[in-house]
Amino acid sequence: MDTFIFFILFCVSIFQSIEVLNANCPPIKCSVAGPEIRFPFRVEGQHSQNCNTSGNFELICEDNTTTIHFPSYGNMIVESISYDTRKLDLLDPKSCVHEVFLNLNLSLTPFLYYHVLKNYTYLNCSASLSPSFTEIPCLSGSDCHFYTVDPSLPVPVSCKKVKTVAIPFAYSPYLSDNTFGLGLTWDLPESEEYRAGHQTEHFYITDNTVVSISIIIFAAAAAISMKIHYNKKHCHQMEGDVLMRLTG
What we know:
Layout: H1 2-24, E1 42-43, E2 58-62, E3 65-70, E4 74-82, E5 87-91, H2 97-103, E6 111-113, E7 118-125, E8 145-149, E9 159-167, E10 183-186, H3 190-199, H4 207-247
Parallel strand pairs: 1-2
Antiparallel strand pairs: 2-3, 3-4, 4-5, 5-10, 6-10, 7-8, 7-9
């Protein structure tokens, strides 16, 4: 009987843990069409601290928009999150992907660029270059003209080198699209990897799942109870047979 009671208490403790986990870390959205936010991400003020212990995956719900803050750049819009491939697709609210590449520092974050990187040099020129160079409209003005070039090319006389950075795609003239290349992936601390592996498929445990588990546990408990009852009955019968033989 003690074994049966221990089994029941053990099952109760499991369900209490599940209920606490579901209550503190349910998947949420900032809007109906927004990405689902779950482990390892959390929304401050809406998720418990237990949803992520590293503190590096904070998202913000603001005006029905999902955003993420980078100290080196500012806020960016989270367009989508793929938990299977660990891909975070971002939009720059300033509509200038080059400003992101020039200023975003991922070294102190758990994030990396999702796509293959290639180094390119940014040039600031006092005069326009030949049409063979593609000017960057969102950085350029009437007195300055910005370009990205291969680092091996000599710097034109009218230009000065601004910075060489790793851009997460092979260079092309399609850089005016502010969504192009803004894909990040992430690394988790070793202590969080196990949890991620078991929650990526479906982090939130649904009511149907709980009911199914309850039925299985109840059936197992009933089987154990019947087994214990049978063993005790068998032992009493054996004792009776032994006493009859002794007194016979």
